[in-house]
Amino acid sequence: MLRYIISRLIQGVFVLLMLVTLAFFMAKALPGEPFTGEKNISEKVKEEKRKQWGLDKPLAVQYVITLKHMFIDWDFGMSTKRVRPVELIIRQSFPASLVLGLVALGMAVVIGIPLGAVSALRRNTWIDYLGMSFAMIGICVASFVIGSLLQRYVAMNVPFLNIAGWGTPQDVILPALTLALGPAAYLARLTRVGLLEILSQDYIRTAYAKGLSVSRIIIKHALRGGLIPAVSYLGPAFASLISGSFIVETIFSVPGMGQHFVNAVIDRDEFLLLGLVVFYGFLIVVVNLLADIATGLLNPKLRLES
Fold first, then answer.
1. Comparing C-alpha atoms, which of 97, 101, 73 is closest to residue 85?
2. In whole angstroms, how far apart are CA 215 and each of 190, 208, 212, 249, 268?
3. pLDDT, tens digit, for every residue of 184-219?
4. Is 0.90 topped by the overall pTM?
5. Three-state DSSP class for 78?
6. Which residue intervals of the chain are DSSP H helices?
7. d(CA 65, CA 270)
8. Could you tell me which residues come within 8 angstroms of residue 13 by beta carbon, excluding any fewer than 6 positions away?
9. Which of 71, 107, 276, 288 is most exposed, with minimal Cβ within 10 Å?
């Protein structure tokens, strides 16, 4: 298992390196420069600004300097538009995105896994069809549609819920639910598929033949193997909930990281964009590693192979 974890860590480093490389050259390929939108600036002043921010150096030199700052100095630099350290911007906005992502993931697990388990146990019944129909709706309907519907028909009719804002504990309910429905749908389908595969195994039929109760067979023998696909999905799901929540954050006025990511692209704020990309990438690598470890604990075969 230790060898498996070390292998994943090495892969994570290469993923981050490739991510920074792609983000760096794609940012450089964007039209204009960080100072394009500033009015009444002469070309001489622009040259001074390029020199101040190190943008006058050859592209290869800038790339090497970026790698050094990111991976050796752990310094994300300064935002060219906001003139603030990128690390400070992330530190101020990440808690809101983290809380929103954690609550959304909890809701997705609470909704999706029981729904998938019940659908598997009631296969080809109206309960199964109803549960999978809900899952299909959760996959197909966009989050901004769900968020708008929740604002119109839930927030406006429930006194303690606000349409938008981020100041009280209940303000996290609607945006988290909006984010959770998509992952919950995937978790339901993955749980159903995983349990159906396990329930068809010979050792499950043997357990039934021995006269064990259905609840004991499901809890002790079937769930551990049946939840492996769902557990494997939790890592990417959590990362996507945090990194892809900028639409929901905009709808519900949540002061998270999504707004900075969009603004960095629009303003061509290279240092802020690269800092956010590296932070998101590091987060994805860590969460996927935890999901792989959890999968290994549930799957003895994987531990033996590693």
1. 73
2. 20, 11, 8, 41, 57
3. 888 888 888 888 877 777 776 777 677 766 667 776
4. no
5. strand
6. 2-29, 43-53, 59-71, 86-121, 126-140, 143-150, 173-199, 202-209, 214-216, 223-226, 228-243, 246-251, 258-267, 270-298, 300-305
7. 13
8. none
9. 71
